[in-house]
Write a structure and sequence with these properties.
heterodimer, A: mainly beta, 7-stranded mixed beta sheet, 4-stranded antiparallel beta sheet, about 0% helix, globular, B: mainly beta, 6-stranded mixed beta sheet, 3-stranded antiparallel beta sheet, 9 strands
Chain lengths: ~120, ~110
């Protein structure tokens, strides 16, 4: 059964770079035509898609975050990562990683990790 | 700034039927992109409830159903149960934004 697990620092200082990794187990980032996504939920707010990547490295980013976001994939480790630079308090959120097919739903999610910018 | 609009909250008594609307536009739902629904309980990952407008993943009770028409979609919960108290989000793809969009979210309360 495919599982996703987020990892990374829980506390990041303003203006620094937030870095998170999602480890895929019970499957591989190279399987099928899947994309691997990052989604976040700020406190008291809704879900926001950050961006997605496939195993070939093709990326799609939320336009509102595009200038600050980089998503990469490491096929040898079955991991994909998020880097969000120049963070502010508004980037405080629960960050989830997830899997999806192009234009379709997110069918597997990680449990999420809370990142605080302070 | 979600492009899919949902009512902030809906409520109902146990056993009743409630519906949650998801209103989009011609660049997402109206463009033919499918709508998907998630149930989100506190401190847990969102769970896929409905995919492809009206399909239930295995394990999801048939009390949950989805539909889509024009630029909108709906999630219906029949036979409301206490365990259905959660936040619900719709999701689709937006060609204008070239990305995935979530609804504003709806909190379901069982009275």
């Amino acid at each position: 059964q495919l599982q996703l697990q987020e990892s990374g620092p829980r506390l990041v200082k303003p203006s620094e770079t937030l870095s998170l990794t999602c480890t895929v187990s019970g499957g591989s980032v190279t399987s099928g035509s899947y994309y691997w996504a990052w989604i976040r939920q700020p406190p008291g707010k809704g879900l926001e898609w950050i961006g997605s990547i496939n195993h070939s490295g093709t990326t799609y980013y939320n336009a509102s975050l595009q200038r600050r976001v980089t998503i990469s994939v490491d096929m040898s480790k079955d991991q994909f990562s998020l880097r969000l630079k120049s963070v502010t308090a508004a980037d405080t959120a629960v960050y989830y990683c997830a899997r999806h097919e192009p234009y379709y739903h997110m069918d597997v999610w990680g449990r999420g990790t809370t990142v605080t910018v302070s | 700034q979600s492009v899919l609009t949902q009512p902030p909250s809906v409520s109902g008594a146990p056993g009743q039927r409630v519906t949650i609307s998801c209103t989009g536009s011609s660049s997402n739902i109206g463009a033919g992109y499918d709508v998907h629904w998630y149930q989100h309980l506190p401190e847990t990952a969102p769970q896929l409830l409905i995919y492809g407008n009206s399909n239930r993943p295995s394990g999801v009770p048939d009390r949950f159903s989805g539909s889509k028409s024009g630029t909108s979609a709906s999630l219906a919960i029949t036979g409301l149960q206490a365990e259905d108290e959660a936040d619900y989000y719709c999701q689709s793809y937006d060609s204008g934004l070239s990305g995935y969009v979530f609804g504003t979210g709806t909190t379901v309360t069982v009275l």
